[in-house]
Amino acid sequence: MTLTIAPVSPGDWRRWRAVRTRALDEDPAAFACSAHAWIEGGDTEERWRARIAARGRLFLATDEHGRDVGMIGLTADEEPELISMWVAPEARRAGAGRQLVETVLQVAGSRPVRLRVMADNRDAIAFYAGCGFVLTGDRPDAEDTLTMRRVATPAATGWPASAARPLRPGGPPPGRSADQ
Asked: What count of other Cβ atoms lies within 10 Å of the Cβ of residue 156?
């Protein structure tokens, strides 16, 4: 399956709304009750446009036939939160989810990223763990979600961090040089 992942523009609010509504209809247990309340209580064009106005934060995955088959978002917080992740059944197990996650991780850059996942959604927890996220606790919150966090890895330099370097025989651990 060939996918195109693109940011959602304000003119795409109907497409985003359609995918989000499909996600909530087809996989309601995958979303916290606050996601359902957002749709039910505030399903207006103005609210969707405001959410989409932060360009480069919401993304749609489109297959080779032009069908929207996935979505993901990233909040603009100092420690961004991955939100609204969903892949249509016909696009699952084809790498769509990983592509969506990689897209928002690129947007986040070197900042850590957090997410909330339903506590009983073991498949999603395993998927996110495979993407480098770790659980930050074992107690669900009021919406029965667990928090996971991924710390961005520094760019590879070829040299391990000083703490990871082997100790010098008979000497102290390596220190920082003047140029570090």
From this structure: 6
